[in-house]
């Protein structure tokens, strides 16, 4: 892909403001040095601290490192990113991709010409379709284009071509499976975290559908946050931490709205679900990042009530991508995806079998009883005990009739 993106910073980034404070200048130097050394731990600390990675120029250096785009010395993933995809078989979800791309770039970038937006939409479509064709094991979901849009605007299409497959297979994989059931486990995690941290609030919103986290967690908040500077800053934080941090982030946002939610009637589940799902338009990302980290440390996933963490598939991206400083290759991640899909299909077959057994429980019991009686009769006849047995049954029946 050839980049047609302008180097002009987008409104909302610190580059656009035209001036960095002396403190930010020092931080800028620290980020550049950490990128030069490939110092992952320092980058995580800088991305989490106030202001995050500051500018898109710095993000273009840091995000590929945080995503593991430069992993390995043989350059296989870079070659894969540059490999032609147009001749590959069409992915089943491409019609939906086209519909979603047509609705992209609503909130940012601002003041773009129609021609410029058309170029970006074409690049966005190419990034998504190329990823799906090269990794057909993945299924597209609505709001995926919001994630890819952020990567495109920050990194440009050339660097995003390597980043999109990695964020898909190593962070969003549970949402890109044939069914939504693994994602539902993520929603249960949100409820468990809120319950552990604030039992009163959890009890109050218990009637709400836990699918309230669907939009935000699927899109890593890109579908809900309308300010470009905020979403870029938030991605600094999310990419610097393991995938489960986005689940804790939604829980932290929910807890921060405690007073507002407690004022709502607890028995109005539809209203509660709607209100929780709609994020506040004004978010203090720096404070929220610190609150999320504190919540994660106070209520680690392994200790949540109900063994919710242990009920997650061992192939869930929340478990397999915990060590982000030593990430899997795309090939390894795709293999995990295939194993997770196979496990899902086994689980679905077991559920269908259990449902069928439940539906036919009475006929099966009747058949089992008939077979048992038949087997008993055969044994009695062969053993010569049948006459005695039926005499005994006849006597018992006669006595029972007299008693009536």
TrEMBL record:
Ranges of biased composition (kind: Basic and acidic residues): 13-29
Region of interest (Disordered), ranges: 1-29
Keywords: GTPase activation
UniProt xrefs under SUPFAM superfamilies: Ypt/Rab-GAP domain of gyp1p (SSF47923)
Pfam families (UniProt xref): RabGAP-TBC
GO cellular component: endoplasmic reticulum membrane
Sample GO molecular function, one term: GTPase activator activity
KW Nuclease (keyword) present: no
Top-level taxon of origin: Eukaryota
GO biological process, one term: endoplasmic reticulum to Golgi vesicle-mediated transport
Keyword set includes DNA-binding: no
PROSITE patterns: TBC_RABGAP
Annotated Rab-GAP TBC domain residues: 53-242
Name assigned to this protein: Rab-GAP TBC domain-containing protein
Organism of derivation: Exophiala dermatitidis (strain ATCC 34100 / CBS 525.76 / NIH/UT8656)
